[in-house]
Structures are given as structure tokens and as C-alpha cells.
Amino acid sequence: MDGNSDSTGSIWSRIVGFFHKNHEELLEKAIKEANEDGELDPQEGSMLLSVLRLDELQVQDIMIPRTDIVCAEASTAISDVVDLITQHGHSRIPVFKETRDNIVGVAYAKDLLAQLKTDPDVSRPIENYVREPYLVPETKKVKELLQEFLTRQIHLAIVIDEYGGTAGLVTIEDVIEVIIGDIEDEYDAPKTLDIEELNDGALRVSGRAELEELEEFGVELESDEVDTIGGYLCMLAGKVPLPGEEFYLAGRIFRVRDSDAKQIKSIDVSPVQPQAAAGE
Predict the structure, then answer these.
(1) Which of 61, 210, 214, 255 could make an S-S bridge to 219, C-beta 3.0–4.6 Å?
(2) Cβ atoms within 10 A of the Cβ of 140, count?
(3) Do residues 211 and 233 touch, judged by C-beta distance below 8 A?
(4) Which of 167, 176, 271 has its CA nearest to residue 217?
(5) Is the pLDDT assigned to residue 65 strictly greater than 70?
(6) Beta partners for 17?
(7) What is the Cβ-side half-sphere exposure of residue 238, based on CA atoms within 13 angstroms?
């Protein structure tokens, strides 16, 4: 028993030492060896390896995209922002002026509660009750972001693209989910699959599904300009296609199922029937 304790202590001493020296490859080897020798719980070992791989990820890989950000215009009344907080369950709401590319602050639910205790006038504009936003580039390493979140004691950052526009939003919860898996609460909407298999080889695909994901279903499309199937079809069309528009690609029919002025939301993909193929 004492021998095993000494061994466990030794492996953790090595791990701590490697963290300080930033020898990621040696640290990964030490974690795997400890896992194989039974010195680490498999779940703990998996979490530690996930921490190491944070350095391989950029913020853009885990952020909430701009189109999905729940936010409020600066002139919005406090009462309406409170409704947003209640409806979506977010404790922090980004605030913008004119466009989402100009995020001017973040409204905190706890700040609003404190304010309403002293001043119950909920008609005031939210712009007077926001904190300065924390901005990060979309290419920042997730490992660095986690360190900054912990050092600055903040939980949310606005992600900026190379042109200074808003690319998305990232929270400390998003980073933690990389390590331990999805964290769900009562406010989370049911998740939908980016690619759903239907009957007869057909697929229902989210516009955000990546081209690489489609390869797993035998659909091979390549592009150096876009990453998603929605972006790919928009690039081919030179605009956002309307619902019902079709594309014949990789031996399949891509039919836009749902779209709006800004993006393709979903697509139905089905094999080309023999007679259709013969008629081309």
C-alpha cells in the first residue's frame, strides 16, 4: 500500500513538473502511462489529456457564432433586457450600438438586480448599466483564454475577427465543456444534430455542418474559402439561396430547406436517382 502511494505521488510530481516546464509531449506520455498502470482513474486521465489539447484549439473552434448571440441594442429598456435574461437563462447579455459589430458593453443580471433595488425605473436604457466588454481575437489559443478568464476573474469574452467585427462569443463554460463534456442546465434548448440520417440514404443537414463532417457520410466537397456546407452553397450561388433551390453536387441533390437573408439554416441531401442522372 505504501509503495503504491509513493508511486502515485511520484507520477503526480512528474506531472506538476512537466506543467511548469511546458513539456506537453512528455506530460501526455506520463498521463497515458499512469492511466495504463492504474494510477489514474480513466475519466481523470481523459480530462487531463483534454486540458493538454486546449493548446491545439483556437477560440473560433468553440465560440458561439455571431448569429446565435443573444444581445440587446444600447437603447433597449432595462425591463426588456430582464425579459431576455429570464427567457434565455443567460446571466450576461452583450449590448451593441447600431450593429453587432459594435459591442459596447455587457449587462450583468446581478448588476441589474442591485440597481432595481435602489431605482425601480425599468424604462431606462440599458447602456447606462453595462460593464466594459472583454475582447479577444478568434485566433487566440483556448488554453491562453482559460488562463485569462481565471486571472481576470471574468466568464465571458466577445470574439473579434480580423477586420474588427464581431465573430462570436465565448464563455468559460464553453472552455470547461471541452475538458469535461457538455454541461446542460434547465435553460438549454434541446440540441439538434448537424447531420441527421433519413431514409434511403438521404440526409438533413444544418447549414453550419462542416465539409469535413460530410465526408463521414460519403459526401466529398472541398474548398479553400469556406468550411461549412451553407457557406459552400452560398459561394456557388453568389448569394444566400432561397428555400427550394437545388444544387447537384458529388452525386447528390442539395435542396435548401430553410434560409433567411443572412444564411442557410438547413438543407436536404438526397442521392441522384438513375433517371435524373441520365438526363443531365
Answers:
(1) 214
(2) 18
(3) no
(4) 271
(5) yes
(6) none
(7) 0
User: How confident is the model over 71-84, as pLDDT tens digits?
Assistant: 999 999 999 999 99
| Residue 207 CB neighbour total at 10 angstroms | 22
Domains and CATH numbers, the chain: 2-56 (no CATH), 61-180 (3.10.580.10), 195-279 (3.30.465.10)
Burial class (CB in 10 A: 0-12, 13-18, 19+), 245: middle
| Helix (H/G/I), strand (E/B), else coil: 35 | helix
Look-up of cell digits 453536387: 249
CB 251 within 8 A of CB 221: no
For 230, the enclosing helix (H) or strand (E) is helix 229-237
The residue written with cell numbers 448569429 in the block is: 67
Q: What is the pLDDT of residue 183?
A: 46
User: Which of 85-94, 100-109, 177-186 has the largest mean confidence?
Assistant: 100-109
Whole-angstrom distance, CA of residue 61 vs CA of residue 38: 33
- Cα gap 13→111, rounded to integer Å: 43
